[in-house]
Amino acid sequence: MRIALALEYDGRPFCGFQSQANGCGVQDALESALAGIAGSPVGVAAAGRTDAGVHATSQIVHFDTSVGRPLTAWVRGANASLPPAVAVLWAREVDQSFHARFAATARHYGYLLLNRPERPALLAGRAGWYHRPLDVAAMEGACAVLRGTHDFSAFRAAECQARSPVKTLHRASVAAEGPLVRFCFSADAFLHHMIRNLVGALVRIGAGKADADWLAQVLASRDRAQAAPTFSPDGLYFTGADYDPRFGLPPTRRDLVIAADTGTT
């Protein structure tokens, strides 16, 4: 049978989602926990391969198993063995046509930025930081340049292995509550470091160092050297993926919620 799971995790203790030879990936921890329940090796596939230090509020994965277990075993049993920074949120049996990566019709990311002169302590590692005032309205206005189908080569990491740099960005928005600024992005798929590079460009605009016309020129140039530096991974969250309703999954998306009064998410 094929089982779909949703996870949340703090990316700081890991070298990214994908399995590594030294076992430092979220995938390594999850497969080890699931193997303990199944009594045999388990391999998982994920909706998105987050980088080192990147978090998830709703990472969707699936795996195949020949053993029958109550769905609660894949949740509570796995959580009993997983490290504190990872938790399974739900489990559902799905048919063989479901694939966490290839069946996803859209993916969603959020970026949380603390905008104040003092560096974060409570949000250290869980939010990006910019010390000078940002014009949130200017950043939100510039997002219009990014929405739609474009060649995002100017915001693509050199090591990106995607076959095409052309992606359709359905959502790009910026909003603030007190000192916390939230960036939201939704697309059919993303390039390596694309979100962190977009955030870097938007912060440059918010800081008054560039405007929306500059962003349009960078996008049209398809030249990574023309864009802003890659922003920190600290505030980046994979917030879910969309799937056809026929799979009968629980909600597969969990957006970031800003709580400026407590300094938490």
Q: Which bin fits the share of residues in helices?
A: 10-25%
Distance between the termini: 35 Å
Identify the CATH homologous superfamily of the largest domain.
Pseudouridine synthase I, catalytic domain, C-terminal subdomain
* Major sheet size, sense and barrel closure: 10 strands, mixed
Mean pLDDT, all residues: 95
CATH class designation of the largest domain: Alpha Beta
Characterize the overall form.
globular
Strands, total number: 10
Task: Summarize the helix and strand pattern as letters.
Answer: EHEEHEEEHEEEHHE
Question: Architecture of the largest domain, CATH level 2?
Answer: 2-Layer Sandwich
Treating each run of at least 4 consecutive H or I residues as one helix, how many helices? 5
**Total count of domains:** 2
Helix and strand content put the structural class at alpha+beta
Low-confidence stretches: 260-265
Radius of gyration: 19 Å
CATH topology-level name of the largest domain: Alpha-Beta Plaits
Q: State which percent range the strand residues make up.
A: 25-35%
What are the main properties of this structure?
265 residues; alpha+beta; Alpha-Beta Plaits; 5 helices; 28% strand; globular
